[in-house]
Amino acid sequence: MVFAQMTSRDGLRDIVACLNARPATLYHLGFTDPLARSTLADANESRNWRIWEDLAKSLMHKARPLYAGEDLGLDLDNTIYALDSSTIDLSLTLFPWADFRQTKAGIKMHTQIDLRGPIPTCIHITGARQHDVGWLDSLIFEAGAFYLMDRGYMDFIRLALIARAGAFFVTRAKTNLQFTRHRSQWVDRFTGLRSDHVGKPTLEKSRKAFPMLLRRVRYLDSETGKELTFLTNNLEIPALTVAMLYKLRWRIELFFHCAPSLDGNRPGQASPRPVRRFRDASISANRRF
Q: Of 32, 68, 116, 229, which residue is the least packed, with the fewest Cβ within 10 Å?
């Protein structure tokens, strides 16, 4: 599995073809005969995926302190996490347990990475039907840390969980957000900032869900010409830092870009176990380890 991750193989067929291309060297990997796809599929199905899980957790525990002092270009010592999810399309014939739509299956890989590294710290796999924001209910938030999320996680009940844990969030505001301003703070418009307001949600339901003060920062992106609106519960850091924090969130897209296909499993053996093994093998093969 590590070989498949490091060499960007697309499935079992691709793995077998690549290994059998050099039959004289197979004995170095413990194979006495040319490798068959069915043999690899059986091994992938029957062996305990928790071995990979323990290896991935061990590597994450060792790697994070090595990058703890990495400079992100921000005057912040806090741990900074980025959260996002990626939907992986699967064959409905091979993965009937992961039904997503009428003609195809899929899983959703909810991921949290420490931006210093970057190093994945938590990956949770669910069916593709689950909404992104539901994952926040099962996370344990680290006091003092920043959590960067897109608009898919914009839910005041969940954001209040982060605030009550002593952590901070930075997210994009939805276009229909109603916000009552309590005070305005000075901004340097030459940096792209347009406004920095502190207040609370206007709607009574939203205010009950998030009774704390909320900060709204508007920023004009000079590259795209778009005006972006950010929300955070941190009232102390500079407004420009809020915008720069959210910009760092795109590092998590690099992790998803390296995720290979799972369609290489043969029919009759597709189950959640190979999917969990794929998850943990992809972490273990991370170049930062």
A: 32
